[in-house]
Every structure is written in C-alpha cells, then in structure tokens.
Amino acid sequence: MATRGTVIGVISNIVTIQVDGPVAQNEICYITTGGDRLMAEVIKVVGRNAYVQVFESTRGMKVGAEAEFTGHMLEVTLGPGMLSKNYDGLQNDLDKMEGVFLRRGQYTYPLDKDKKWHFKPIAKPGDKVGASAWLGEVEENYQPLKIMAPIAMEGMATVKSIVPEGDYLCEDTIAVLTGEDGEDIAVTMVQKWPVKVAMTNYKEKPRPFKLLETGVRTIDTMNPIVEGGTGFIPGPFGTGKTVLQHAISKQAEADIVIIAACGERANEVVEIFTEFPELVDPHTGRKLMERTIIIANTSNMPVAAREASVYTAMTIAEFYRSMGLRVLLMADSTSRWAQALREMSNRMEELPGPDAFPMDLSAIISNFYGRAGYVYLNNGEVGSITFIGTVSPAGGNLKEPVTENTKKVARCFYALEQDRADKKRYPAVNPIDSYSKYIEYPEFEEYISKRINGEWTAKVNELKTRLLRGKEIAEQINILGDDGVPVEYHVIFWKSEVIDYVILQQDAFDEVDAVTPMERQEDILNLVVDICRAEYKFDGFLEVMDYFKKLINLCKQMNYAEFKSEKFEDYKRQIREMVAERQ
C-alpha cells in the first residue's frame, strides 16, 4: 500500500509532510491542493517528517493538504518519438499542452502512444541477452534507433520470443525474455529510468581521444575538444555564449543534439524554439531539429524543476549513448542549476559554503560531468556523450565557486572575455586563459598524428607561445609608447595579431568562414606558422604596422574564399610573395 502523508509546513517550494509509512530519499509524491495534483521530490527525511521540493508553484497550499507517495524516483520515459520534441525539465511534452501559459498540475506523456514504428528484429529466440542488449531497431527521422532489453534487468536472460518485422505501437510487447529465475519479462519499446542515477550499462569507459570537429577554429586548432569529452564556456552577459553553443551544436560531428536551457531568460529560450527549426544540418542537408531534443526550463519556472532539467537531459543522452550513438549535450547555463541547488540548500537551513552555495557543490558538479564520456558497450560497439556547459558568472568574475568547481572537472575551458567582445573579436574566447587538457594526452597525440600530421601539436603550442609573447609586448607598448620599444618587438606583436585575425576570429554569418573543415584548418595553420617563422627587415614601427595590416587583410579575404578555389589559391600566392619580399 502506498505511503500517505499530511502537509505540516510550507516554505515556498519546500514542503514538510508528516508520513504514515516508509519513504525514501528522492522518492516522488503528489500533493493535492485546490483540485491540482502537484509533483514533488523527497530531499530529506527526519523521523516521521519528509521534506519535499515541489516542482510547481505552491501558492494556495495549506497545512493539512493530502500527499501520496509513488514508491519510485523521478523518472524519464525513454523510447522512440523523442527526437525533435520540446520538453520541460520534467519531460512533459510542451507541444501537447494547451494555452499560452503552463498550467499548474498539468503533466503530459512524453511519447506518442498512437504512432506506429517499423520494427526490425536483431536478436533471435534462444539468444542470451543482458541489460540494454539490442533486440531490434526502428528508424526515427532517418536515425536508426535500437530497442533494448530493460536497462534495470539483472543477470542474463534468454529471448523466448520476438515479433517479426512490421509496424507496432511503442507500448506493444515486441519481445518476451525469460530471466535467470524463470520469470518471463515482457519488453516494449518504452523504458523508464531514474534521472539521478547514472546508467552504467557499458563494459569500459576509457580516456576519450577522438577529435570532435566543430568547424570553429579557436576550438579545433587551439583547444580541441574530443568525442566524449567535457568542456565549459564561462563568460559575462553579451560575450556570445549562446551563439558559440549554437555554432557547435550545428556543426559538430554528432548523431543526436540535446539542448538543456536551464533557467535561462524566457526570450533566450524562445530564440532557441524559433531558430533551431530553421537551421539546416550541414551534414545531411535536412533540418537540424530532426535530430535535436530541447529541454526548456526558463528562469520564471519553479526552482526545483530547474534543478531536475539538467539530470533529465543527461539521462536522455545516456539512453542514446547505449544505442552506440554520438550525443552532444549542451547545457545553458549550469550557473542557474547551481543557483537552484543553493536556494534549496538555504531553505533546508544547511550549513552554507562559499557564496552560500552548498558545501558539496564540488561533488555534485563532479558527479554530473562524470556521467559524460566515451564508452565501449557490452556488444563491442562504441557510444559517447560530449558535454559542454556554459557558466554565467556574476559580473564576469571567473573566481566564483561555480566556475572554480567546474574548472576542476571539465577538461576544456573556453573563457569568453568582455574585452574581446567589445573589440568585436568573435568568437570572444580568450586564447591565453583558455585551455584543453586533451592536447596533453598521449592517446590524442597519437590520434592527431595519424589524422593530420606529427607536427600539429608542436605548431599549436608554438602559436600559443607567440600569442602570450604578443600580449606581453602589447602591454609594454601601452606603457612606453610606440617609440619606446624596439622595431623587433613591434614585429613580434604583429605576428601575434596575424594569429588572432586569421585563426582565432571567425565570421559566423559568412557561408564559407562559418565552418572550417580540418583539412582547411591545417592549411591555414601551416601558412600562419610560416608567416610567424619568417625573419623580416623594417626601418620603423609604422612600416611594420602598414605591412602587417595589408598581410592580415589578404589572409582575411582568403578565409572568405572557397577552399582550393582559384580565388583561394590566388590570395595564398599573393601572401607568399609579400612574405618573400620582406625577408
């Protein structure tokens, strides 16, 4: 019999319930108030009192309201029919909801129960299968999706029967498995999984090493992220976090894209809803939305639902990874998620950590980022979740707790800088503060040597050194004036400007320059390295400035020309001639 309880205290979204039976941490309950059943999650149990966070507004809730516990944790419903859907943080299908505003206590089923899917069996009767083994396949939006044995199944089971190829509803039984205890397990296309529990249905999780091509030069060339890697983009408002995320999600080599808008302003979430359906996927030529799922949670939605939204997104990503797919998960912004954790912690009257965030913020962020990764599945196939989060530090302060704790766990750090954004140097990623730990991995070094060439890493490190040297000299010129430093210093400074203008800056609105394939990035890198390694002769600093401005202009024109076209080769020839003239 389900445990029941009575509300004895309400503090905003935290409600205290006196229970008449057993309840568990993270269990879901429904509180009836004013004719609505409001969903809530147990976050603390003390004696007979359960403290729950309500995922809706608690306005009008009174002491004495009835509560009923469900006996399970917050779950997501997984199956075919999720692609191109817009969900809220609790996986309610927003397109099925009525009216302009979300109504309290209204929950919708996330899948389409009436749609038939064309099922092709993979397993045969008599096969031995484990948890999440592939039983069959359906196609959704040109994407082959696997129908799996229950994720929660323990031990091995035998396939007793499986339906022939044909069209079935998602809730039809497509296979019957016999467990080790002799009990029959009916399998449908639908699975449920608790969002706070990581799926560990894989054999091995090695260090990721395969370059994830994004087409953004400042990432791919200078600080590469890998398939199954983790990265984050901190930066003050207006520095282009969302634009950079859109560029990555549009261009990156991924099968599935999941966007978690966690506590963002409503107008930014509306932008995602209106822009994403219009974006064309450069890999397939069809709409990007076909392989995208949006989890929308605006800043005016209840705080508790905001906290759940990132877990919902990660669990859906893990489900697709189990099918052997490459998933790109973007969360915007994890600062809002951390603020939700802080608000809950404060209402629970827990001991505060730095800036009133929970004491265990570091562990929470670490556990969450740890769920991403590149894995070898039990059947030998590979799948990956690449996670990129954004952080919105107040006032652009990169020393605040969320940024500092994320830095400890994310392997890539793309620091957006107000100064670069003000100078219109986009993407505004600071090349000196940003880093990628993957470039140091021997596995990545070996992979990139085979993929491009053995000199790649050395050349990238050389450019980083030149950028740092250029920054130091720029500071000296600012203090001493142009006449106060030798001409050679001006040459070093302008060489760093060539790197900045030609490699780091990119025009997201130009058809050619918006996406740079690796072959072209290698070509640009080699050209810039040759320009920087050349020794030049100049009589004064004005001569240096004029020469390099002309050179940068030619390089920028080359960036707008189609790769290996006549125009491109002509610009390249002119650049080589200009360099040879001054040597």
From TrEMBL:
<dbReference type="InterPro" id="IPR004100">
    <property type="entry name" value="ATPase_F1/V1/A1_a/bsu_N"/>
</dbReference>
<feature type="domain" description="ATPase F1/V1/A1 complex alpha/beta subunit N-terminal">
    <location>
        <begin position="8"/>
        <end position="71"/>
    </location>
</feature>
<dbReference type="Pfam" id="PF02874">
    <property type="entry name" value="ATP-synt_ab_N"/>
</dbReference>
<dbReference type="InterPro" id="IPR020003">
    <property type="entry name" value="ATPase_a/bsu_AS"/>
</dbReference>
<comment type="function">
    <text>Produces ATP from ADP in the presence of a proton gradient across the membrane. The V-type alpha chain is a catalytic subunit.</text>
</comment>
<dbReference type="GO" id="GO:0042777">
    <property type="term" value="P:proton motive force-driven plasma membrane ATP synthesis"/>
</dbReference>
<protein>
    <recommendedName>
        <fullName>V-type ATP synthase alpha chain</fullName>
        <ecNumber>7.1.2.2</ecNumber>
    </recommendedName>
</protein>
<dbReference type="Pfam" id="PF16886">
    <property type="entry name" value="ATP-synt_ab_Xtn"/>
</dbReference>
<feature type="binding site">
    <location>
        <begin position="235"/>
        <end position="242"/>
    </location>
    <ligand>
        <name>ATP</name>
    </ligand>
</feature>
<dbReference type="InterPro" id="IPR000194">
    <property type="entry name" value="ATPase_F1/V1/A1_a/bsu_nucl-bd"/>
</dbReference>
<dbReference type="GO" id="GO:0046961">
    <property type="term" value="F:proton-transporting ATPase activity, rotational mechanism"/>
</dbReference>
<keyword id="KW-0406">Ion transport</keyword>
<dbReference type="InterPro" id="IPR031686">
    <property type="entry name" value="ATP-synth_a_Xtn"/>
</dbReference>
<feature type="domain" description="ATPsynthase alpha/beta subunit barrel-sandwich">
    <location>
        <begin position="110"/>
        <end position="196"/>
    </location>
</feature>
<keyword id="KW-0547">Nucleotide-binding</keyword>
<keyword id="KW-1278">Translocase</keyword>
<feature type="domain" description="ATPase F1/V1/A1 complex alpha/beta subunit nucleotide-binding">
    <location>
        <begin position="215"/>
        <end position="436"/>
    </location>
</feature>
<comment type="similarity">
    <text>Belongs to the ATPase alpha/beta chains family.</text>
</comment>
<keyword id="KW-0066">ATP synthesis</keyword>
<dbReference type="InterPro" id="IPR022878">
    <property type="entry name" value="V-ATPase_asu"/>
</dbReference>
<dbReference type="GO" id="GO:0005524">
    <property type="term" value="F:ATP binding"/>
</dbReference>
<keyword id="KW-0375">Hydrogen ion transport</keyword>
<dbReference type="InterPro" id="IPR027417">
    <property type="entry name" value="P-loop_NTPase"/>
</dbReference>
<dbReference type="Pfam" id="PF00006">
    <property type="entry name" value="ATP-synt_ab"/>
</dbReference>
<dbReference type="GO" id="GO:0046933">
    <property type="term" value="F:proton-transporting ATP synthase activity, rotational mechanism"/>
</dbReference>
<keyword id="KW-0067">ATP-binding</keyword>
<dbReference type="InterPro" id="IPR024034">
    <property type="entry name" value="ATPase_F1/V1_b/a_C"/>
</dbReference>
<keyword id="KW-0813">Transport</keyword>
